[in-house]
Amino acid sequence: MKKKYSYQELYAFTVNLFSAIGCRKKDAATVAEVLMAAELRGIPSHGLVRVSDYISLWEAGRINLQPQVHIVHETPSTFTMDADNGFGMIAGKKAMNMVMRKATTTGTAWTTVINSNHYGIAGFYSLMAAQKKMIGISGTNANPLVAPTWSLSRMLGTNPLAVAIPAKSYPPFVADFATSPIARGKLALLEKENKSIDYGFVQDKNGNPSHRPDILKEGGAIVTLGGDYEHGSHKGYCMSAIVDIFSSVLGGANFGPFVPPQVGYLPMPKQQVGKGLGHFFAAFRIDAFRPANDFLKSMDEWITAFKKATPDKEHEKVIIPGEPEFEKTIEHTKNGISIKKEVQQDLIKLSHTYRVTNPFE
Amino acid sequence: MKKKYSYQELYAFTVNLFSAIGCRKKDAATVAEVLMAAELRGIPSHGLVRVSDYISLWEAGRINLQPQVHIVHETPSTFTMDADNGFGMIAGKKAMNMVMRKATTTGTAWTTVINSNHYGIAGFYSLMAAQKKMIGISGTNANPLVAPTWSLSRMLGTNPLAVAIPAKSYPPFVADFATSPIARGKLALLEKENKSIDYGFVQDKNGNPSHRPDILKEGGAIVTLGGDYEHGSHKGYCMSAIVDIFSSVLGGANFGPFVPPQVGYLPMPKQQVGKGLGHFFAAFRIDAFRPANDFLKSMDEWITAFKKATPDKEHEKVIIPGEPEFEKTIEHTKNGISIKKEVQQDLIKLSHTYRVTNPFE
Questions:
Q1: Which of residues 206-235 of B touch A (CB under 8 A)?
Q2: What distance in Å separates the CA atoms of residue B93 and residue B70, rounded to the nearest whole number?
Q3: What percentage of residues in chain B have a pLDDT greater than 70?
Q4: Which one of A43, A238, A246 makes the best mutation probe of the B interface by having the most chain B beta carbons within 10 Å?
Q5: Are residues B289 and A112, on separate chains, in Cβ contact within 8 Å?
Q6: Residues B52, B220: Cα–Cα separation, whole Å
Q7: pTM for the full model?
Q8: Is B121 part of the contact surface with chain A (CB cutoff 8 Å)?
Q9: With an 8 Å Cβ cutoff, are B285 and A75 in contact?
Q10: Considering Cα of A69, then A70, then A73, then A76, what sign does the dihedral take?
């Protein structure tokens, strides 16, 4: 095993693997591109670790490998896309490209995608727009792990939201965050390491704060951002609910407690209130509100001002959203990407099952 | 002094007072309508308590009482409005009405308002859309009180975001929240009552957590939602930053640290990087994504599902965003509205200065 792998070899392997299970080459390339964007940006929780989850979904008969993505509703500045139950990236990238084209004509445009599955990092899509000097927005719902304020029931997913805003001389501002205080992957890691977790992240089945990262297995839940009502958890609840409704009710995907799981070994919810899970995407032309150059200069000024903020004594600087991921991308492109041993082992197994050469052995 | 005052008498008094200082009757009515919406909805921090702040701004020569609100940039689905330095509600209500008209044609529409001032509760504008069975969004920036994650400098306002979504048989879902964990008004109240504040809301000038509600006077700051980095304060920072940029950079208002104060007794920032403070507004036709009735039925199902969530033992039910404010509106309309003694005293003084009859004496 090598210590680091190049983007090219990991990308090529991922394309080959998804092609081998039966994806069209172009679709396999899209899935690989989004997963590898997470690896490049230093968000491995949404990178190659997900390959086995995605393939387990297909093995469980829950993924259409040859989706016919299509528009089901349209106005001058909006549309709703049916992902035909394919991997979420396939409709996701199409929808983002199309919403950018629409915004070119109308100034801004919004779309929602229904009948979809996990689509990787939300930031990938918003960044597509920023790379074309447009503002990009994306969000998605996810299977329910989060209890709203005062609730014992898990009603919401970790529902990420991403907003990318281009600047003139700086890399774009990219906010890309789960609207919950912690992701499930991080809980799983703490559990594996036999560590406890601070208060403010999870509650037990009675709604009491818990230190146990495995408490979700016993009827517990992740709490909303803010932690408790006194500290504004109802604001986190609002954020997650907005992302959920824009991903589901808007176009007709499943909402909240009915969103299907992202792995094959978890059972499907008994009731379905819509089609698959859902995402939303938006693009704004920056010259829809003022001349483009004024916008870009002003965004540079915003970033410069925040870079000049005085950091506390434990930190060197105040972070601009997206800056660490931009720096990671440069470093990973130059020096290669580390892949955890457990992830490599999963990928090696899959490469044997589906007879694909892997870069790990 | 009466215990409670009717909507009508408080509204009429407010219209008369703003007319007496020199507002056009129609503009005075708009200012009063938005302030009274806060009182009705049980958000007195944004109600009549603000009247003296607004008038102090005008007395300090910082408000144009006869603004010529006008469009400075436009596309089919967007526009930028210059509020001509009037009270924020005047351009705010115009912008929301116009963005709804645009959305009727294009499906969705967005606008930003620059050169403006405090505009009251963000929820007022989003609710305008929901009352017409459209989705409404609004946000605004505000003078800097909040330090981003790892920052000692106050760079952001409490920057509220409001999203209103209509349902079929329920009142609309209305999320209307400051993106910071606490509002300045609440800190001021704790200070008056000589109370300390829990950790997780404010920091001192060195970035250490503080229990002192008056710590902002000594170089402290409100922290972002989440409290500290470990609990996701960078997510709160992202939310506040997005609201700030959409309110400022988008159209050309002042951003973050340069946003002017909302009261006359605080000095103007030395540097201006744009015009006044800014807001943004959006409207979505619900039939821009699926047939309207399908949307409304699905939103009813969403609300029903969340109403059925099991509450913890200390609460009777899980709250739907906007539900408490809806119930308050009914109660206040029926039984009248209480106004704090200190607020009444301020209003009595103003009524004498500007020779207006008041309902309090």
A1: 206-207, 225-227, 230-232, 234-235
A2: 13
A3: 100
A4: A238
A5: yes
A6: 26
A7: 0.97
A8: no
A9: yes
A10: positive
Q: Which residue of A has its CA nearest to B302?
A: A255
List, for residues B186-223, the tens digit of each pLDDT value. 888 788 889 999 989 999 999 999 999 999 999 999 99
A-chain CB neighbours of B284 within 8 Å are 78, 110, 250
Shortest alpha-carbon distance between residue A18 and chain B (Å): 31
A149:B319 CB<8 A? yes
> Tell me, what's the pLDDT at A185?
75
Q: Which has the closest alpha carbon to B160: B261, B237, B239?
A: B239
Q: Are A295 and A302 in contact (CB under 8 A)?
A: no
Q: Within chain A, how many helices (H) and strands (E) appear?
A: 10, 10
Tens-place pLDDT, residues A143-158? 999 999 999 999 999 9
Q: Is A175 on the interface with B (CB under 8 A)?
A: yes
Query: Cα–Cα distances in Å, from B144 out to B33, B294, B308?
Result: 27, 42, 40
- DSSP assignment of A5-33, as one string? B-HHHHHHHHHHHHHHTT--HHHHHHHHH
| Cβ–Cβ gap B312/A181 under 8 Å | no
Beta carbons of B237 and A201 less than 8 Å apart:
no
User: Are B93 and B30 within 8 A, CB to CB?
Assistant: yes
Distance CA A90, CA A34 (A): 10
Domains (ranges, CATH) in chain B? 7-59+338-353 (1.10.1530.10), 70-181+229-288 (3.30.1370.60), 182-222 (3.30.60.50)
The reply to whether B164 touches chain A by the CB within 8 Å rule is no
Note whether A251 contacts B: Cβ–Cβ < 8 A.
yes
Chain A residues closer than 8 Å to B256 by CB:
302, 305-306
Main-chain dihedrals φ then ψ at residue B30, nearest 5 degrees: -65, -45
Q: Specify the amino acid at residue B287.
A: D
Strand ranges of the sheet holding B108-116, from the earlier edge strand across to the other edge: B70-75, B78-82, B108-116, B277-285, B134-140, B160-165, B173-178
- Helices A7-20 and A25-40 sit at what angle, rounded to 10 degrees? 140
Q: Which of B260, B249, B154 lies closest to A318, judged by CA?
A: B154
Q: How many CB pairs under 8 A join A and B?
A: 282
**CA of B250 to nearest chain A CA: how many angstroms apart?**
6
Using DSSP's 3-state secondary structure scheme, residue B66 falls into coil
Of B80, B241, B309, the CB nearest to A155: B309
Instruction: Say how many CA atoms lie within 13 Å of B269 toward its Cβ.
Output: 21
For chain B positions 138-157, those within 8 Å of chain A (CB to CB) are: 147-153, 155
Kindly report, residue by residue over A14-25, the tens digit of the pLDDT.
Answer: 999 999 999 999
Beta bridge pairs of residue A146: A156, A222
Give the mean model confidence (pLDDT) for residues B41-46: 94
Helix boundaries (H) for chain A: 7-20, 25-40, 51-59, 88-106, 122-131, 184-192, 233-247, 292-307, 323-335, 341-353
If 0-12 CB within 10 Å is exposed, 13-18 middle and 19+ buried, where does residue B194 land? Answer: exposed
